[in-house]
Give the backbone structure.
Amino acid sequence: MKLLVTGGAGFIGTNFIRTVFDKKPGWEVVNLDLLTYAGNPRNLLDIESEHPDRYRFVQGDIKDSELLHNLFKTEKFEAVVHFAAESHVDRSIYGPGAFIETNIVGTYQLLEAARSYWESSSERPNFKFLHVSTDEVYGSLGPEGYFKETTPYDPSSPYSASKAGSDHLAKAYYRTYGFPAVITNCSNNYGPYQFPEKLIPLMILNIQEEKPLPVYGDGKNVRDWLFVRDHCDALLTVLTEGQNGETYNIGGGEEMRNIDVVNLLCSLLDAKLGRQGETSSSRLIHFVKDRPGHDRRYAIDSTKIRSELGWTPQHDFKTALAKTVDWYFENQDWVESIRTGEYLKWIDQNYDERA
Ligand code: NAD
Ligand code: DAU
C-alpha cells in the first residue's frame, strides 16, 4: 500500500504515520505538509532516518494544484489519508480566512487532483480517499443524546463550518463521480505531539510553569475524549474495511466536563511535582470569558464502526491521560521546539482578551 498522508507533521497525522510504521510492515508513506505553526518537522525524524525507502516528506500546500497533480503522477498512490487543515476553533474566530482557504479550497484541490489521477489510473479499483473530519460539524448537544452519522450538520464556528464544507465536497465527489471517498467524524483527541494551544497540553504546560489555567465560561462544557492512537487504529480500519461513500463516527464514549479534566490534570501533575494543600495546582484555575458560539456538549454514537468494522478503543481516559502527561514531561525538547514566536503571540492575543 502506498499512501499519501496530508498534514502528517501535525498532531494526529504524526500519530497516524507512527501507527502505520508500527502495524503495517511494507506500507509506504509520502507525507505532504506545509509546516504551518502546527506542523513540526522533528516529529518523524526517526522514521525518516530508519525507513528512507518507505517514508518521504514533501513540504507543500494542499492548495497547490500543480504540485498535487505531479505527486499523484509520479508516486501513483493507492490511497489518500487527508488530515491537513487549520484545526483550532479559537483561531478560526480571530481569522476565519485561513480556515476557508485550507479546509475548503485545499480539500477541493486535493479532491480534484485525486479524482483526475483515479479517473486515468489502472489502479482504480483499489483507490481510496479517507477524509478525516470532526464531530464539531454536528453542532452542540443538550444534556441528552448522541451524534449519529445521520445527525444533521449544524456547525457553530468558522472551523466547524469549514470542515462541514469539506465533508460535503467529499460526499458530493462520491455521489457525482463515484469517487471512492469515505469520511470519518471523530471526537476530541488527546495524546503525544498535540500542539499546546488545545485544552489538555495547554493545561499540562501551564500547570508545570505555575501559570493561570484559563477555563472558558462555567467549565461545564462536555467533550467526548479519545486517545489519539485509538483514533489512528480506527482510521486504519476504515481505510482497509470501510465502504466508499459512507461516514463513520469515531468516539471514546468518555464524556467529561472541562473543569473535571482540568482538576484531574492538576491532581496528576501534583503527584509528580510534589504539590499538595495550599500549593496544589488547582489554585491556578481561572474562569475566563467564554468562547463565542461555544458548543455545550459533544458525544459520539460509534455503534456503526464498532458493529460493522469491529473497531473498539483500547485506552481508558484516566490511564491514557496519565501516559500523555508523562510524555510531555519526558519530551521537554519537543515542547521547547514549538515554543516559537508565533506560538507566544497567539497565547498573548487569545488569553489577554479573555482575562
Ligand atoms: P494539527 O493542527 O495538529 O495539524 C494540522 C497539520 O496540517 C499541520 O501539520 C499543518 O502544518 C498542516 N497543514 C495546514 N495547512 C496545510 C496546507 N495548506 N497544506 C498542507 N499541510 C497543511 O491538526 P490535528 O489536530 O492533527 O487534526 C488533523 C485533522 O483531524 C484535521 O483535519 C482536524 O479537523 C481533524 N480532527 C481533529 C481532532 C482533534 O481532536 N484534534 C478530532 C477530530 C478530527
Ligand atoms: O471535537 C473534535 C474537535 O476537538 C476537533 O475537530 C478540533 O480540531 C479540536 O481542536 C477539538 O476542538 P475543541 O474546541 O473541543 O478543543 P479545545 O482543546 O480547543 O477545547 C476543548 C474544550 O476546552 C472546549 O470546550 C473549550 C475549552 N477550553 C479550551 C482552551 C484552549 C478552555 O476552557 N480553555 C482553554 O484554554
Remarks:
- The chain has 13 helices and twelve strands.
- The chain has a mean pLDDT of 96.
